[in-house]
Each structure stands twice: as structure tokens, then as C-alpha cells.
UniProtKB/TrEMBL annotation:
<feature type="compositionally biased region" description="Low complexity">
    <location>
        <begin position="31"/>
        <end position="50"/>
    </location>
</feature>
<feature type="compositionally biased region" description="Basic and acidic residues">
    <location>
        <begin position="104"/>
        <end position="118"/>
    </location>
</feature>
<feature type="compositionally biased region" description="Acidic residues">
    <location>
        <begin position="119"/>
        <end position="131"/>
    </location>
</feature>
<protein>
    <recommendedName>
        <fullName>Esterase/lipase</fullName>
    </recommendedName>
</protein>
<keyword id="KW-0732">Signal</keyword>
<feature type="signal peptide">
    <location>
        <begin position="1"/>
        <end position="24"/>
    </location>
</feature>
<feature type="region of interest" description="Disordered">
    <location>
        <begin position="31"/>
        <end position="147"/>
    </location>
</feature>
<feature type="compositionally biased region" description="Acidic residues">
    <location>
        <begin position="53"/>
        <end position="103"/>
    </location>
</feature>
<dbReference type="InterPro" id="IPR029058">
    <property type="entry name" value="AB_hydrolase_fold"/>
</dbReference>
<feature type="compositionally biased region" description="Low complexity">
    <location>
        <begin position="132"/>
        <end position="143"/>
    </location>
</feature>
Amino acid sequence: MVDRCVTWLSVGVLTAGMSAAVLAGAGAAIADDTGSTGTGGANTSESAKPADSEDDSDTAETDAPDSEVDDVAEEEPAEEEEPAEEEPVEESEEPVVEEEEQPAPDKDPQKVADKGSDRDDDAGDAAEEETAPAPAVKAVVATQTRSKEQPAVKVEDTVEAVVETAVEPVVKETAVDLEEPVAEAVAFASAPATAAISATAMAPRIPGIIRFIGTLVFNLYGVATRLFGGPPILPANSTVTVRSSTLRIDCACEDGEGVEVPADWYIPQGAEENPPERMIYLQHGFLAAGPWYSHTAAALAEQTNSIVVAPSITSNFFAADACWLGAAPMHEGMAKLFDADNTALVDSAAAAGYAGPIPDRVVLMGHSLGGGAVSGVAGYMVQRETIDRLAGVVLLDGVGLDDPERMTDALRLVPDEIPIYQLAAPVYFWNNFGVGLDALVEARPDTFVGVTLVGGSHVDAMRGGNPIIQFAQELVAGFSTPQNSAAARMLMVGWVNDMFAGNQDEGIYLEPGEEFSFETPRGEASVVALPNSLTKWFPFNFLKPLVPLMDGIFTFDPHCVASSVGSRTAGSCQASIAA
């Protein structure tokens, strides 16, 4: 979230592209009569919703009373406007329709000229007296089933139904005995029918040009961050060794494929002779990189005697395979790292110069959007039955962008005996106005879930050795006080040690809303237990009403996207380009 302003430029480009796509879709839906068929209408419907929602459409089509459906089906195509005497209709071809139902006294019934039929002279007179024709809406023929009592109706493949707009549609839940197939004319209104559809299915396709430009921007940004960010830099007098390699994550459109990402390994002193039994998986936030957390990672490795791995994963949400930091396929791929038969961590550590065993127990830790990512990983570890390896989860002002409920659902899957804590800043723009806090409190309402640093910043826990990067991130997100930076480190270390030990001896644990002050090497700091009402003033806070709209852009990739705790969906895609 640190450089979140960069995304606003992408939002502008994306909005223009998506607006053009919407207008194009609307034009396709209002095709001329000569080019529209029943099949064409089906294709237009498929572009707006998946095939599994056809049952909902069928239900909506059969909701109207039988008499109203038969009246609509009786109409002749609007394309045939020749005089009735030129095309007489045989008496045997007319549908048998019961006319017992009378319209309501306060509404005029729909009047349509019955061409070629002399069966009802009054209907012909009424049609001649019609002076203000009602607007027409498109009618698409759909083959359905009907009950035995309904007469067979013969209609063309496509009809133009003249419908009076003053007559409101009647929608009912009706149980129908479906036996024999029959063709019925169904008029679709301008607004599409609503149905319970997953976020994956509703995700619109990104125009290729937008995907190309967006990926190019993220590639350039990735080059710039590597150039100016540099490698991880350890604090002075650190006893930790850091080396870098790459890590294979099985996130791709096809099984057996994956992406290679940079990874920094922090090995505590004496690990070769006495291999640690603890590991911390540390995930950076949106538009950040692993080396920006080098001081934080080194402190964790040294003070918890843990091997710390910090991968750098692209924030390119234009990736066609959805293998970016905020997407569920990436979360699932990260969870696969802890499968018993996955050697990716061992291979990466060996390439970084560590030949010892990889610890069996792990604490997942993530900052900002990385917190939302490790929440998804924890949920997938439950599904993959590797949750016994998880000692706990620490969210460093963690947030989820696309849908807070996904983060809540993932955290809710984790057994209560596995602790999950949030080290938060007061609610403001850079932590997405507390959506991550709300998600955790909702998932675990009756237990301790963390604290807020009084006067804290979104980057309190984000400590690195590059002074340019450190200054830039604090300039953007708000400067950290020395005592809050020290307090954040103390809280992380205490919670992690307790998670591995299975107790609460070192960390700070409070009742909801309780405030507590303690001494740090840089002065006194104060925290308030979650949930609480602490907020932080920031110039961008006025944008709060727009944040949900911006969050929506992170759910639009349709190719390989899955829900954060759901299964993958099939689809073709192109290779992801990591930024």
C-alpha cells in the first residue's frame, strides 16, 4: 500500500478501457433485427454471466402467469408488416389460447393486430384504434418445457414483442410441472437479470491493450525498484547472514507450471551446526519488495532463532495468469510451498547457500497487502491439510483489497488454537480504513486479535537498510516515531516466540479496548487492544468514499482466478510477467 498512488494512474487507463468495453457490449446487445437470432441472443447472455446461471434465467422466464406467456407467444414477428390479406393464416395453424383472463380495470391490455385472422373482429377494431404505439423491446426465443395443460404454440426463432411499459412485470416463485418442450417468447428488459454469481465468474475481461500497457508499467517499476532499492542490507553489528536466490511458486494456469520470484534468506548465527526448528515466511506489501524489510527480517531471525524467507512477488494485477500478490491463485501457490512433497523451499535455500533442513513449523507474517496474502495462504493450508505446520499468523497492518469477506472467510477457516494477531496503525487511508482489522475481528470476535499503536504509521514495521527507500515510504505513508518502530519490533518478536512455544509468556495480550504503555529502547510507546476506535488524520482520507470503487479493479481477471479459499477455474491464459 505504500506507493498506492501509482495505482490511480492505472485506474484512469482501466476506467477508459472498461467504459469502451461496456459501450461495445451494449451495442452488441441491441443488434438489428436481421442479424439477431436465438443463438445470437444466447451468446450475448453468455458474455455477461456463466452457463451455470441459465437455471436462474429459466426460472425468471416461467415466473409470469400462463395466460400472459401465451399472449406474448401468440404475437407474429414484427418484421412481417405486409397486409393481412397477402399472407392469410390457416385456421389450423392458430394456437388455441384461452381468453378467460381479463386485464385489471386500471390498466389497458396489450393490443396486437392479428394478421390474417378473422376469428376476432373486435381485436382488429381495437388494433385500428391504437394511436400511440408502445416502445418495443427485444424478444429472444428460448426452448423450454411446459405443463400438459399448455397448448403448443408455433412462433418464429426471433420475434419483436410490442410491450406497453406501463404494465409492470409479475415475478413469482411458481412450481411448474415440466414435461413437454415448448417454444416461448421471452422479452429481456434493458437491465440484466441478477443471479448469485461468484466474483470469479463476474470478473470482466481486460482489453489486451490495457493488459499490455499495465504490464509494461509494472515491468518498468520492477526494474526501477531493483535498481534503486538494491539488495537487502543488514543492520550494523547483526549476527545474521543474508543471501538471495529465486523461489519457485506453483502458480500458473496449468498444473506443473509456476513462476520464479526473487527470495532473500536470513539465516541466524550457528544455523549450520545447530539448524533452527523455526521458520518465518515474511511477505511484503503492495508495490514493495523483500529487501525493503531487511532490518525487520534480520531482527526476527536473530531474536527468535528462526530462518526467515522474504520473497518478492509482483504487484502486477494485470497478470493474465492472476499470479500476483493479491490474487487467490498466488495464495494457493504460496500454500503449496508447505506441502510435504514440495522441494521449492529446500532448493531455494540451497541456492542461497544454506544446505541445512527447512524447519517444519512456520509463522506466516505479512505487511499491508502481504497480510491479506498470508491470510489466504493460511486458509489454503487448511484445505491442503498442512495446517499442522502453521504455528501462527502475524499481520503487520494487513489489508485485503478486492473483497474483505474473502479475507474474513480465509481467517475463519484457521482453527482457533492457532493464534492470529494484527499489529495495526490507527485507521486511515494507507491501511484501507481498517478493512483488515474488521476482517480479523469478524473472523475471531471472542479472542485477543492484536493491538493498535497509538500515533502509529502504516510503515512502523517496515524497516530496511536503504535510507532512500525508507525515507520515501515514510514520506508517502506518514513518518514513524522512534518509539513506535521499536515497539513494533518488540511486539512481533514476543508474539512469534510465544507462537512457536505454544504459550503467552513474552508477548503483550490485552482485553478489548484496553490501553497499555511500555518502555522501549527508544522511549515509551502505547498500544490499545483491538477492536478500538483509534483513527489517524491524513490528507488523503477524504478519498474514503472512492476506495471501494478502486478496490474493485483488483477482481477483474477472468482467466485463472479463484476465490481465496476456493478451487481454481479452468481457462486459457498467457504467461505472467513479474514486475
